[in-house]
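Why do we bother with a discrete structure alphabet at all? Because it lets us treat a fold like text: something you can write down, compare, and reason about line by line. To make this less abstract, here is a complete entry for Alpha-(1->6)-mannopyranosyltransferase A. Read it the way you would read a sentence in a foreign language you are learning: slowly, and without expecting to understand everything at once.
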Amino acid sequence: MLEQRVAGATTTARPLVPGALDSRALELRDRLVASLARTWSDRMVRRGMLGMSLVAAGSISPAFLPENTFDLPASPLIERFHLEWLGSGLGRVLTTVLLAVGMALLVDAWLRMRPVHGRKAPSLAWLLWSLPVMLAPPLFSRDAYSYAAQGKIISRAMDPYAVGPFWVPGPFADQVDPMWRDTPAPYGPLALQVQHGVVSLFPDNAYVSAVAMRLPALLAVGLLAYALPRLAERYGVSGRHALWLGVLNPLVVMHFIGGAHGDAVMVALVTLALLLASRGQLVVASMTVAVAASYKQTAVLALIGVVGMALQAQSDLAPGAAARLRAMLRHGLVHGAIVLGTFTAVTAVTGLGWGWIPNLSVPVTLRSLLSPPTFVGSAVEWLMRVGGMPESLYSAPVPIAQTIGLLAGLAGIVWVAWRVAPRNPVLATAGAMLVLCASGPVLHPWYLLWGGLLLAAVRLSARHVRAIVFVTLFFVTYGVVDATVVNGTWALGVSAALWMAARLRANRRRAQEQADEPVLAAASSAA
């Protein structure tokens, strides 16, 4: 009865019949093979896979490989396949072209796969699109190299919350971005132990360890592909559309798989937690939120969604703001205690302690102009510099703007929790995470996926979907242009940006030909 009050749907579990395990495995295998065959038969899936193959080929460049890879003497693999020429001149141009064309093909395939007029997005397209880059160097970010170094620190019995990659000299430290070589880890204890586990598979190869960080990311996207459509269907949203807008989103393939970011695990676990809560499994959902937070602390905001679903499940809730406030505080304390207790247990099991708390300021050392508060503060600082003001004055705008942004973000999250969570817990969770992104001092493109993917499980109008498509194309273009600048071929990046703009305009014209109605039609109960 509880899960019916939460989402208005029922689920039934097939009982396990003794002796039927082998037949169930065969059935799952046959379904997987059939699903792969259907996915491969889609022309747009093959186009996207071709695009990612070109991206993989274009990744053999200074934009993504560790520093000094092409310097003489070059890396052993580069020398073995005589690829030294890719590090300069015509080679850089070629890899940049491959990268830009590949991402353009992926974006084009994604836009054409939009599930309208009866079209269904193939369920395993994300897997086939991921395969070509599984062995490529980390894409559009060097975080995976830091993950490998942090895993190596733990393998040497050092505290990753106290020392940085500098303390594991050699290949593991050399491939880390110089900005982060002396900084300790800000990540949750579970994330660090997963990194340790991956490094233990390849203890003597820093580069392979970094590439292998895609394994947990791939599993996370698989979990996301399972949970997000089901969460959407429980709230009357098309699971196929949620799969297309969320899981098949080019930013997911680009950053979660390509960049091997640990954020993928956090987002997948948050989505699973909301799915469990929607089924009335509130305690297990809170525990799942804690596990997600032990990977990346941002996941604690999903508690807003769990509390919202607990309110929806409460049949004796009296009307009025006062009663709602008391109920929210009660549920917040109960489920907050579960989250804290589970997080403490995970921390104890990992044996890494709470050293991440003082390290939360580590990412802020990077000045991210994508962050609105940091951008505003930097603009004011520049004007003060131009005006000839002393350093004691122009050094203040950035920290002041960042502080104002954080306070405004906190107020926004409180408002979302109060006004939105009781009515739409999934939207409230997405909104809280997006508010944090917009108000925080640092913003990377993959941060938008924290809450952006959950929007795929919310009923949206065609206008809102177009906005999400626009944001997706903007940040895909940003990543491509950023890589071309690193490769010293910025003109090609500008060309890619112009193509993306033209493609977006064509997609908008096609979308406007359709009725401007909610595109996320209610899923049938049998879906």
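What the structure line is telling us, in plain words: The mean pLDDT is 84. The longest helix spans residues 321-350.
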